[in-house]
Amino acid sequence: MMSPFLSVVIPLADASDLAPIRSILTSWQDGFSRHGIDAELILVEWKARPGEGGLDDLVASLNQGNSRCRLRLLKIPAEVHDGLPHADKVSAFLHLAQNIGLRRSRGQWVLLSRADIFLSDEMFRFLGSGQLEKGRLYLGDRYDFEGSGEEARLAAIQTRRETIDLKADGIDVATLRVPSDKYIDSWGQFGLLALTFLAESRFVLRSAWAFLKAPSSLAFSARLGLAWKILSAEWRNIGLMFQESLGVQRERKRARLFFADYPTGQAGDFLLLDRESWFSLRGLPEWAGAPDHVAALFLLVALGSGRVRESYLRMPFGICKRLANLATPSQEDGSWRLSFLRAAGMAQAYIEAGPGQPYNGDAWGMAGLTGLELPQDG
Description:
This protein is an alpha/beta fold. The chain has 11 helices and 11 strands.
């Protein structure tokens, strides 16, 4: 079997209502067919229960007569969920489901998405245009709407560049979008001060020359040493400023992690990267808790360390709010929840540990878990 061009990984936390799932999967298949893209849709059913075969039948029916985009179904048993930390607090570990699908993907490129996403025709056209570059992570904007087809109602335009509203010591914090460049200008200060010192060099040179010529009881060698100290003072100051600026620049790089405008919700709506780079990064961080901000942690490490580059796609895609099969985040606080500030701190630690430091082990994506896919689905 030839490898498809694109694998799309879609986690399912609730497959009880098949009608909207069929509508969304059909939209993916139609889009790939229209634009001549060889793809596979990997559905990862989380907490699959024995005897619930409705999704199996749906996948089989959608695969009939469709050679351009095949569907694969991976079933993660409920006992796998129950054996994970904080399983009683998290209804579905969607980031782990995405990693499981990613680990078993066959495409040259892998898109991590969600079960309520519709791609625009413009986005399909871009995917089939041959413009994708390896080592570049593609992200995009999102339209939120309710309903489907002609009854769809645009509710809001929700971009990936969200303001992050957090609470710190009871005070609302909503400034994490502010670029660090706005409040730290180390290189600008250094440049201006260095130019000022250099502009005064003629005055310093005349002062040193006058000191050498002036009558003095000091030996000439001593006066020459003092004159050299006068001449070199400005360069020593520039050197000290340069060292200080380097330190501030390092702090600035770290601070940027806390002011990055990356996705802050659940594991990504749209994360597109070549399979080789995905495997080099070992997928999404397998945080042992709720999936909130896992995508943000992934982006902070991947982009902040320079291991991949970012391309922000202007063409939007849609998310159907009617399909409620995502894990509902709990308002309860605890060690199992990943806040954005905590994600940024963890990302900083990973980056400082070295450019190749992985956040997942070799067995990421539950590599040892077998028997997930029915033969007829492959």
